[in-house]
Amino acid sequence: MPVRMEVAMKICVPVESAEGLQAPLYDRFGSAPYFLLFELGQGVLTSINRGSPDRVRGMCEPVRELLDHAVDVVICKGINGHGIEMLARHGIRVYRTNAETAGEAVEDFRSGLPEGIGTPTSRFPSGHP
User: Fold this and answer.
1) Which residues, in sequence order, are CB contacts of 92 under 8 Å at separation 6+?
2) Structurally, how many domains does the chain consist of?
3) Per the domain annotation, does 125 fall within a domain?
C-alpha cells in the first residue's frame, strides 16, 4: 500500500550519531542514541541526543520524546511489539527499512519503499526495544 505523503510530515529515524542524513541507522528503535527528525515538506533536520546507550533499561521514554516533537512517522530497522503498540496508540505510523543511513531511509520513504509494520520485526527478541 503506497504511503500517503503529507506536506508537513515529520519523520523520525533512530540513528547511531548526530551526522545528519549521513548518520548510520541504529538497529533498535527504543535504545537508539539519537533520533534524527526530518520535516518532509521543509527539509529541516533536528537531532535529539537521547543520552548514553548504557542508560538503565526501561528508564527511557522514546514515545514521549517523539510526542514532544509532534512526530508522524518512524522509519526503523527493528522495533518490538510494545514499541509498535505505543506508537500506534498515539497515531505514529511505523515503517521498516533495510537502509544503512538516515538519508537512504528518508529517500526510500519518499519512494514508497518501506514496509509498514503492525507486528514486531523478527530481528529482535520480544521485550527489547
Assistant:
1) 63, 66, 67, 71, 72, 73, 74
2) 1
3) no
Which one is predicted more confidently, 49 or 59? 49
Please, is 128 exposed, middle or buried when counting C-beta atoms within 10 Å of its C-beta (0-12, 13-18, 19+)? middle
Q: Give the structural domain span for 75.
A: 10-116
Q: Which residues contact 70 (CB under 8 A, 6 or more apart)?
A: 10
Could you tell me the pTM of the whole model? 0.81
Q: Are 15 and 25 in contact (CB under 8 A)?
A: yes
Burial 42-80 (b: 16+ CB within 10 A, else e): eeebebbebeeeeeeeeebebbeebeeeebbbbbbbbbb
The domain spanning residue 69 has which CATH number? 3.30.420.130
In-domain check, residue 122 = no
pLDDT in tens, 60-78: 588 988 999 999 999 999 9
